[in-house]
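hiii so um. not sure if this is the right channel but i have a protein structure encoded as tokens and i wanna go backwards to a sequence. like what aa goes where. can anyone help
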């Protein structure tokens, strides 16, 4: 390991074995064998825990280099580990990898399962377990789990008590809702602005095409032009109202009206565009428009659209 291979140097000074009364083993040969076996078992547990940390360190180095979405595929194919086990190894290294000889002063070998569980436990739970082991308690995996649960419950209760209540909670909730809604609004406005500009350019193109064909043998009829541009104009009227929170000034009235009360546009290019689009979007306006006035209407539309698109 780059930082420390002695992550959990669980002490093997023979003291752990002293906790068992070997006088209960009458056969001297068996007693000696069991004491030596216990020593080797403790060393094996230390090696296993250190190996898990080595694996965790290597996984942490590898993960950023694997493209997003295929980490589990690479992990299972190359190591056979489950994602849950790999997360445990990485958590163990992240928690204990910079603490050389973490358990060197302890005379009890915590099971690797307990150490793995402590890797993702609250700091207070880790300290509690270590203090108890230093004081001579013999903690099983279940006992370690119980200690962790106690501290998790304390943390949850502290968080609950720290949460605001009554008017303060309502105020905080309102502020959170405002932030969330603003983020949603900003994203929606950004997307809508791009679409509005594209449709404005499309309407301008149709208007200019109609102007160019006006002096030809086959000019665009009023009915055809209305069919080509009216739907986009209706969409743009709604979109511009959403973006600006201002309504168009027009001599005609759309069938669709919003329940929101909006002020009219202040005089300017966008007021002109909103007004001409409202007229284009109105079936009544098209019915009242004489064919002789169509060129002037097209000129007005082109002037208004070019003022915002070419500025």
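sure thing!! here u go:
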């Amino acid at each position: 390991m780059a930082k420390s291979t002695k992550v959990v140097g669980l002490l093997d000074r023979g003291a752990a074995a002293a906790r068992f009364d070997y006088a209960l083993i009458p056969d001297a040969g068996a007693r000696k064998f069991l004491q030596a076996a216990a020593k080797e078992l403790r060393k094996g547990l230390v090696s296993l825990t250190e190996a898990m940390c080595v694996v965790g360190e290597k996984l942490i180095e590898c993960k950023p280099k694997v493209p997003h979405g295929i980490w589990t595929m690479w992990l299972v194919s190359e190591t056979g580990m489950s994602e849950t086990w790999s997360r445990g190894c990485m958590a163990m290294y992240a928690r204990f990898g910079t603490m050389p000889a973490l358990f060197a002063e302890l005379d009890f070998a915590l099971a690797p399962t307990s150490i793995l569980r402590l890797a993702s436990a609250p700091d207070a739970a880790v300290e509690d377990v270590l203090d108890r082991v230093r004081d001579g308690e013999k903690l099983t995996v279940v006992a370690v789990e119980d200690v962790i649960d106690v501290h998790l419950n304390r943390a949850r209760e502290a968080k609950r008590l720290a949460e605001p209540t009554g008017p303060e909670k309502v105020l905080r909730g309102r502020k959170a809702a405002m932030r969330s809604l603003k983020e949603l609004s900003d994203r929606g406005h950004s997307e809508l602005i791009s679409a509005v500009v594209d449709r404005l350019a499309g309407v301008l193109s149709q208007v200019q095409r109609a102007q160019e064909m006006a002096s030809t043998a086959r000019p665009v009829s009023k009915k055809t032009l209305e069919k080509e541009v009216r739907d986009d104009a209706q969409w743009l009227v709604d979109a511009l109202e959403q973006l600006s929170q201002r309504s168009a000034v027009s001599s005609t009235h759309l069938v669709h009206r919003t329940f929101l009360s909006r002020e009219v546009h202040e005089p300017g290019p966008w007021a002109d565009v909103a007004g001409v689009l409202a007229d284009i979007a109105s079936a009544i306006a098209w019915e009242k428009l004489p064919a002789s006035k169509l060129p002037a209407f097209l000129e007005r539309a082109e002037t208004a659209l070019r003022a915002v698109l070419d500025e």
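oh and The CA atoms of residues 168 and 174 lie 10 Å apart.
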